[in-house]
Write a structure and sequence with these properties.
By secondary structure, the protein is of the alpha/beta class. The chain contains 14 helices and eleven strands. It binds nicotinamide-adenine-dinucleotide and zinc ion. Zinc ion binds next to helix 10.
């Protein structure tokens, strides 16, 4: 088992990320649950039949459980209300602990519910998708989608720890597994060229278990180093938004269709779109775009929204381009109504706070 210790520089808040295989059942030897008055597990309908029993068997008796519908469509205020109701019904108090067992939707929503219930109680993340293991469960961004905008309502609130059991990935559908590689590739692109080469050398399913654990650990370490220095996204943390300015808008629009993209798929398209923008602005050489496009495709990820969904259209008059632009206008990353991007200067080096004109964005969206 590996341990990565996260220490937020400003607040000195510190917590461990435990990474290993078959460590879920050892959870009581990794965390001290005796100091909490009540334990409350939040999970979803897909994860519950697969992993809930393993967790409840490992925890003290009397642990309460709340099971939510699965997926991004459930990341709503209505679901949040149900979580708060369940927390209240379970009589959680300020010394209770919420355990989030699931993908990024569960860790985001459970973190938000805990950080607001009675002005904030402790939570522990047990991510069960590759995407949530390498990204969503670490760093303390919590929240839910609102008014058609991704994660519009949220808090920065750190977990007391993260338990990452790679065995949980055995049941993950291939599409969700590949989705996690979008964030893994992003980590290489923004921070480390050698890591980018390592994680794109093989197709995702061809990495051995040990190689995968190594990749998960390295991605966690890249994210840890960034968020430690900038918990609340004043500067450096914006690097992690690569691919997300366009990706979040595409994801949100796709959710209104009957062929929604997964988060990672939308981010993959966003990464390529933003690489093209960086090239138009004279930041990123053309050959780097080709390398990025090939790497994403090799990982089985989409790079074009028109062919991945049924929302096929042929020209810039696509009804989806104005919708995507509109979503971007209300993005929480904007500053003074200007759309801000994190763009690449080269593979392994991102640059934050780049403003891009609507014309350039439209021009690139029309090529996707
Ligand atoms: N807070 C952050 O810093 C951060 C970072 C990246 C992404 N996110 C958020 O994370 C979400 C995406 O996360 P995700 O891709 O994990 O989505 P998800 O939570 O919807 O999980 C994807 C699907 O996999 C299922 N699943 C989960 N674990 C499983 C398992 N072990 N076996 C079989 N099925 C399993 C889920 O039920 C769901 O249907 C988005 O809402 C995104 O905004 C947050
Ligand atoms: Zn993401």
């Amino acid at each position: 088992m590996k341990t990565i210790q996260v220490t937020i520089t400003k607040t000195k808040q510190t917590y461990p990320i435990f990474i290993g295989t078959d460590i879920l059942k050892k959870i009581t030897s990794l965390f001290d649950f005796t100091k909490y008055t009540k334990l409350f597990i939040l999970t979803d309908e897909t994860v519950a039949p697969l992993l809930l029993r393993d967790l409840t068997d490992a925890l003290p008796q009397g642990t309460k459980t709340c099971i939510l519908p699965a997926g991004e469509k459930a990341k709503t205020l209505l679901t949040m209300q149900k979580i708060w109701e369940a927390m209240h019904k379970a009589k959680l108090d300020r010394k209770s602990l919420v355990l989030n067992l699931g993908g990024g939707v569960i860790t985001d929503m459970g973190g938000f519910a805990a950080s607001t219930y009675t002005r904030g109680i402790a939570f522990l993340n047990i991510p069960t998708t590759l995407l949530s293991q390498v990204d969503a469960s670490i760093g303390g961004k919590t929240g839910f989608d609102f008014d058609g905008i991704k994660n519009l309502i949220g808090t920065f609130s750190q977990p007391i720890g993260v338990l990452l059991d790679t065995r949980t990935l055995q049941t993950l559908p291939q599409r969700e597994f590949l989705s996690g590689f979008a964030e893994i590739i992003k980590h290489g692109l923004i921070a480390d060229r050698t890591y980018f080469i390592k994680v794109t050398k093989k197709q995702p399913l061809d990495y051995t278990t040990n190689e995968l654990i190594e990749i998960i650990s390295q991605s966690c370490a890249i994210k840890q180093q960034i968020i430690e220095q900038d918990e609340t996204e004043q500067g450096k943390r914006k690097l992690l938004n690569l691919g997300h300015t366009i990706g979040h808008a595409i994801e949100a629009v796709s959710l209104t269709t009957d062929t929604p993209l997964s988060h990672g798929e939308a981010i993959s398209i966003g990464i390529l779109a933003e690489a093209k923008i960086a090239n138009i602005l004279g930041l990123l050489p053309k050959k780097e775009i080709i390398t990025i496009e090939k790497a994403l495709q090799h990982a089985g990820l989409p790079t074009c929204w028109r062919t991945t969904t049924k929302w096929r259209t042929k020209s810039t008059s696509s009804p989806f381009i104005p919708q995507i632009l509109e979503k971007m206008q209300s993005d929480k990353k904007n500053d003074n109504n200007e759309i801000r991007f994190t763009l690449l200067e080269q593979i392994g080096k991102g640059s934050i706070n780049k403003t891009v004109s609507t014309e350039v964005i439209t021009q690139v969206l029309a090529t996707l």
